[in-house]
Specification:
7-stranded mixed beta sheet; 2 domains; Quinone Oxidoreductase, Chain A, domain 1; alpha/beta; binds zinc ion; Rossmann fold; globular
Length: 349
């Protein structure tokens, strides 16, 4: 079968590899769609930097670990159809059933997993990649797609779960004003979910015209080009001089992570959704956050949100976010991802 292989640092290739057969505890899936995630090119260049231990900190700090030496099949956002079920699998899954996958694999046994915090699992691993014609998975990686959710939409499960977790962490209230920096797939998924969660007005900032246009089409009340407009001035006008109740930073730009604090309304919440390279300080003005009672929240991708995301998929407008490439054109697809005009690129085997 064809598969997108991470061969070695900096190199991916479409290769012919043996078609996998399910182990007795696995389910074989014919892949429908596999999305390119913002983290995939980072994996190819050697993973996230190590997080150095912080002097004086307590407890476990999850580390990204050494970069995968390769080769391995890429892809962790996917959907497909069940074609075979291992003899020891105990589940209600049936051959022919359509499923979405979340290929993060918390151990289920450590202190964090047993306390409902699988996102901090001490023995975290990943199920096999999905940028291939077939993949074999333990049943806990599979989620049954409702009848009204297509395979294309189903492949949004994992990024949608991150958006659900981000909006949960924002503790939004009805009528909140919302700012989202970054109109990529996570930014726009957050926007769609925040609108359904009672946001009164949403503003999206992105330097790419196509993404601003899409944000408006999907319900944003205003968009900003941060390269041409002053985010502070536009935000003042948009919020009547009060600032935002809730804001989400999805670009990974440290200066924006800081600026969102300054654009927050009293009692506001700032959610840093992105991953930020390097272990740099944000430089939070502490008297300012104190007097304005500002809450800062991060987002560690959390599998608890998968079922909530699954329920949301049919409610979200995801077609306009999607660009499909044949799996055999994966290298072109990764180039297009780098160019940044497409929101979510899916590979179709
Ligand atoms: Zn992802
Ligand atoms: Zn665990």
């Amino acid at each position: 079968m064809k598969a997108v292989i991470f061969k070695e640092l900096g190199v991916i290739e479409v290769q012919d590899v043996p078609e996998p057969e399910p182990a007795p505890d696995q389910i074989k899936v014919k892949i429908g769609y596999a999305g390119i995630c913002g983290s995939d090119p980072i994996i190819v260049i050697g993973g996230l930097e190590e997080f150095p231990h912080q002097e004086g900190s307590i407890g476990w700090l999850q580390k990204p670990g050494p970069p995968h030496p390769g080769p391995k099949i890429m892809g962790h956002e996917a959907s497909g159809t069940i074609v075979k079920i291992g003899k020891d699998v105990r589940s209600d899954f049936k051959v022919g059933q359509q499923v979405a996958m979340d290929l993060r694999n918390p151990c289920g046994k450590c202190y964090f997993c047993l306390n409902g915090m699988q996102n901090f699992c001490e023995h975290f691993s990943n199920h096999p990649g999905a940028m291939a014609e077939y993949g074999c998975y333990q049943p806990e990686a599979l989620f049954p797609l409702p009848d009204d959710v297509s395979l294309e939409t189903g492949a949004f499960l994992e990024p949608a779960s991150i958006a659900v977790h981000a909006v949960d962490n924002a503790h939004m209230k009805i009528g909140d004003t919302v700012l989202i920096t970054g109109g990529g797939s996570i930014g726009l998924l957050i926007m769609e979910i925040a609108l359904r969660n009672g946001a009164s007005k949403v503003m999206v900032s992105d330097p790419i015209a196509e993404k601003r246009k899409l944000a408006l089409q999907l319900g944003a009340d205003a968009v900003v080009d941060p390269l041409k407009e002053n985010l502070l001035e536009v935000s003042k006008k948009f919020t009547g001089g009060h600032g935002f109740n809730v804001s989400f930073e999805t670009t990974g730009i440290l200066a924006l992570a800081r600026q969102l604090i300054l654009l927050a309304e009293c009692n506001g919440t700032v959610v840093w959704v992105a991953t930020y390279q390097g272990n740099r300080d944000v430089g939070v003005p502490i008297t300012y956050t104190h007097t304005k009672e500002i809450t800062i929240h991060n987002v560690a991708p959390s599998p608890y949100a998968d079922y909530k995301a699954l329920n949301m998929l049919a409610k979200l407008d995801l077609k306009p976010l999607t660009t499909v490439f044949p799996l055999t054109d994966a290298l072109k697809a990764f180039e297009a991802h780098k160019a940044g005009k497409d929101v979510k690129i899916m590979l179709k085997p």
